[in-house]
Design a protein that fits this description.
This protein is an alpha+beta fold. It contains two helices and four strands.
Length: 72
């Protein structure tokens, strides 16, 4: 995974929560700090990492997972 993909994940998640299109690339676009603040505003972690729950057992996975929407 490249740094650009990680920025896209954070910007994509922030955009979904705000109902807006966010531009997240390593070459420009919306500042990562601003996207982190939007994530905090909606109850997520600043860096895009979340606690996930196992779909099989219902237990919380004992680590943070970097997640977000990505366009391929």
């Amino acid at each position: 995974m490249t740094v650009g993909k990680m920025i896209e994940l954070i910007s994509g998640k922030a955009g979904v929560l705000e109902g807006e299109c966010k531009y997240g690339t390593a070459f420009g676009g919306d500042p990562v700090d601003e996207m982190g603040k939007l994530l905090l505003k909606h109850g997520y972690s600043f860096d895009g990492k979340d606690l996930l729950m196992s779909g099989i057992t219902g237990e919380m996975i004992p680590c943070f997972v970097f997640s977000g929407p990505v366009f391929y």
